[in-house]
Amino acid sequence: MPECGLLVSAPGKVILHGEHAVVHGKAALAVALGLRTFLRLRPGGGERLRIHLPGVGVRREWDVAELRALRGRLTGGANACLVLRAVRHCTGCPERSPSPPVCLCFRDVPSVDITVWSELPTGAGLGSSAAYAVCLAAALLHACGAISCPLKDGEATARWTEEEMTLINSWAFQGERVIHGNPSGVDNAVGTWGGALRYQSGKITSLKRVPMLRILLTNTKVPRSTKVLVAGVKEKILKFPAIMNPVLDSIDAISQECQSVLEAMPTNPSPEYYPVLEELFDINQHHLNVIGVGHPSLDRLCRVTASHGLHSKLTGAGGGGCGITLLPPDATPLAVEAAKRDLCACGYECWETDIGAPGVTLHSSSSLNAQVLHALSES
Questions:
Q1: Where does the record place the GHMP kinase N-terminal domain (predicted)?
Q2: Residue 150 · residue 158 · CB < 8 Å
């Protein structure tokens, strides 16, 4: 392990198309964000496993001997739900809080110090918990000798093999289960493989050779309940099936059309694709309003960006939350800065970033910027 420790990152995610329709058997496209979670793992002392999350003011530590004893009690093929409850209880981690359960599943429980810092806002539907779980799984798997260290001398970054990433993804999913109970597995898959994924009826498929696209990601900061929004869509479908089912079919067709465009772009990077992507944004946003998951804050976001010639849609559950704005190659820096300024004037939080970013990555310290290195150096 390098003197600075093991440095790992994983991306967040946004839903490009297919929100809510995916609950009813339609396709959804999830893409990796340029905003990432970063983790540093170093050998620890005093037979303790320590985790520090400076961005959210969390410090936790566990006695390694107690975790090893817990691991011994959980290796007898117990019911998965009982195992998860036992992990939460014995590590003192309530629902939806950071926890290190994956370390209990390896050959040994390491004595390490872990620091995690993220560019992702929490609770915004951007896969922050999955990015955390992916980083944690990769780092602990490496610490326990279950996966290799692919970073060679002189290299800035490296990725693991497909087989090793499958292992990372499987343990990250277990971490997501501890946090969320019954996750789809999409967020941790995006965090592991990056790029873009198609999700339909429980099946996750990686899209091949997708381009990196520039976007504005905007958080309206309007809280919403995914459960309430999903229930509202279901109620509307039951009330007006002949009207609503064709809308879901259209959203599905948008996802499929977008997938075709994204897969065609790397071999033929024509600017003519961008008006198609923009129109798909517009159509899908109207559909999402029709099924009842829009919000005045999102309507305002779309109006503000449209005044600068840009196209936006909500991403995720809707009802507030986040929206994404496509930035085509001909979008001028002046127009982008003006849009960001106007969005911030609405009280929104805005990031200029990419989608289609790489998945879980091993870093040399030279590949990380000063802000990340400073955050990870906090002890």
A1: 110-191
A2: yes
